[in-house]
Structures are given as C-alpha cells and as structure tokens.
Write a structure and sequence with these properties.
The structure holds two protein chains of two kinds. Chain A is 0% helix and 61% strand. By secondary structure, chain A is mainly beta. Chain A starts with a strand and ends with a strand. By secondary structure, chain B is mainly beta. Chain B contains no helices and eleven strands. In chain B, a hairpin with a 5-residue loop joins strand 4 and strand 5 (43-50). The termini of chain B are far apart. The chains are: A mainly beta, B mainly beta. The A-B interface holds A 32, 34, 36, 38, 42-46, 49, 87, 89, 91, 93, 95, 98, 100, 102-104, 106-107, 109 and B 30-31, 41-43, 45, 48, 50, 52, 90, 94, 96-104.
Chain lengths: 114, 110
C-alpha cells in the first residue's frame, strides 16, 4: 500500500522567513497531492493541491512542487505570518473515477515566531 | 450552508457504553470517510464508503461500524467504548480526491 512520509514533524520559522515542508510517497499510481492546514481546535482545510500532470502550482504566498520521478512533493510558504502557525498535512491520493485511495502524512507543526 | 456537518461536537461517556456520531454532507459527493485524530494529531483513516463499496482500515476494531442510510449520511457507531477511543473523530466527503472535513467530534471516554 501507499506510504507517505512527511518532514519535519515540527518547524519554527521567524516571521517573514520562508518555510518548506516535504513529503515522499511510494505508489507511483498516486495522482493527486493536496495540502491541508489545521488550526488549533479546527478541522483540516485544503490550502493548495497539485495533480500529477503539473510540476508546480502557486497561490499567493503558498506554492507546491511535485517531482514524480523522485516521488516527492513540497509545500513552500513565503513571507510567513503569525496566522500561518498550524499543523500542515500532506496527502497522496489515487483518484480514478470515483474510486479513491488516500494516505495522509504524519503532519508538521509550524510555529511562526513574531 | 454547512457542507459537512457532524453531531455531537463533544461527547463524554463512560467505558463500556455504546455511542453514535452522525455525519451529513450536502455536497452531493459520492465518497465519505471517517477519520480518527489522536492526541499526537495523526490523521488515521478508519473507513471510506461510497454507494458501491465500504473499505475498512484493517487496524480498526470491529467495535466500530459505519452505517450509511443514504448517500448523504455516514454515521459511526462505537460499541463497548474503551479509554483508548478518546480522540477527535472527523467525517469527510470527497469528490475526485479533494476532502471536505466536518467540524469534528471530540470523544472523551472516562
């Protein structure tokens, strides 16, 4: 089955600096890679995603890169702000016409230091 | 309108009891999930279900059972609750992989 590894498990970054979280996956059939942000006491929410036919996607301060050959993908947050403090989860999903198999990473607790 | 809703938000109960958590989605999605999030924040898939197939994570005890009266609902029944069942349980629905999570139910077993 799919195995998703996420690193680091905790990350502290000075406000204004960049943060990078990395995930690797094992199943080459995975074709959808979302990133979720979970604030304290709240539900995980999708912040950005990428499909296997794309190498990079950006949305304002957030970007995701995908290297299918190496089977890894990364989340990049630039100009970090205190509200970026949260737990971030990656996931690798095989999505085929209503059939889905997904695996989440173990999460990264990001702390932005003011 | 709330896309994925769960009730109750908090549930405190004693060991050995049987309880249920309800989940409803109004997104018209075909697939629904139950997740358990423990104190270390790991998100563990317990079940995935669409109108064709129930997939059970083999590590989930058979005290846990999902019940889907219709496509928009997936309820979670837990029998003989144990201390280790204390966690936050999230329901989610998805279409083409993107997960929409419910607000979570914090279950505390005493």
């Amino acid at each position: 089955g799919e195995n998703v590894e996420q690193h680091p498990s905790t990350l502290s970054v000075q406000e204004g600096d960049s943060a990078v979280i990395k995930c690797t996956y094992s199943d080459s059939a995975s074709n959808y890679f979302p990133w979720y942000k979970q604030e304290l006491g709240k539900r995980p929410q999708l912040i950005i995603d990428i499909r296997s036919n794309v190498g990079e996607k950006k949305d304002q301060r957030i970007a995701v890169t995908l290297n299918k050959t190496a089977k890894h993908f990364s989340l990049h947050i630039t100009e970090t702000q205190p509200e970026d403090s949260a737990v971030y989860f990656c996931a690798a999903i095989i999505s085929n016409f209503g059939n889905e198999k997904l695996t989440f990473g173990t999460g990264t607790r990001l702390t932005i230091i003011p | 309108d709330t896309a994925v809703s769960q009730t109750p938000k908090y549930l405190v109960t004693q060991m050995g009891n049987d309880k249920s958590i309800k989940c409803e989605q109004n997104l018209g999605h075909d697939t629904m999930y139950w997740y358990k999030q423990d104190s270390k924040k790991f998100l563990k898939i317990m079940f995935s279900y669409n109108n064709k197939e129930l997939i059970i994570n083999e590590t989930v005890p058979n005290r846990f059972s999902p019940k889907s009266p219709d496509k928009a609902h997936l309820n979670l029944h837990i029998n003989s609750l144990e201390l280790g069942d204390s966690a936050v349980y999230f329901c989610a629905s998805s279409q083409e992989g993107e997960q929409y999570f419910g607000p979570g139910t914090r279950l505390t077993v005493t």
